[in-house]
Amino acid sequence: MTKSAFNIKQQETNLTSKIVVGLERVSEAFKVLLWEHAKAIGLSPIQIQILIFIAHHKQEYCNVSHFAQEFNVTKPTISDAVKVLVNKGFVVKEYSSTDSRRYSVFLSDIGQDIVSQTEGFANPIQKELNKINHSDLEMLYKSITNLIYGLNKTGQLSVQRMCYSCKFYESINKNHFCHYLNQKLNDKDIRVDCAEFELNK
């Protein structure tokens, strides 16, 4: 019990405990903002997240199996969410030509309108980040990318499309290099969600 990050006494002397609690508070703010937008248009938070995800990612990622991994929820939960989005006319199913049970989804015109209304839900958080000086932001970003990569390696995050796991990435003398772009990357250039990502197998 005394080793819990949420133990007040431990937080007094342990910086990582303070950071864990701080990240939890940011996570709460994120959830509150998402819920506010969800209630305003009669959708659940996961339904909004699915719509926003579809708007900004390749269609090969836009299926029930991938959504379940992306958002760390069960396939039945995702199936129910997608069913509601289909019934409301926000997304359209496109069935596989080789397997009639498999399908991907893409946004309808109405779905695109919903994304335009909701995808800025995290703007208040971004606004606060913009108040932090640039060098501190770069240090924060480096720490976050290392944290995400570590959580992915240990199985706490099932999906991530960042440089460190990409087949195009190489660390050369502790410097980052992208073979897709054919250029050296600074810490701030590391991508958390890259459109060109291909898993390094």
Automatic annotation (TrEMBL):
SUPFAM superfamilies annotated for this entry?
Answer: Winged helix' DNA-binding domain (SSF46785)
Record's signal peptide: none
Tell me which residues make up the HTH marR-type domain.
16-149
The record's Pfam families line, in alphabetical order, gives:
MarR_2 (PF12802)
Q: Which UniProt keywords apply?
A: DNA-binding, Transcription, Transcription regulation
Known PANTHER family for this protein? Answer: TRANSCRIPTIONAL REGULATOR, MARR, TRANSCRIPTIONAL REPRESSOR OF EMRAB OPERON
- The protein depicted here goes by the name MarR family winged helix-turn-helix transcriptional regulator
Q: Which organism is it from?
A: Lacinutrix iliipiscaria
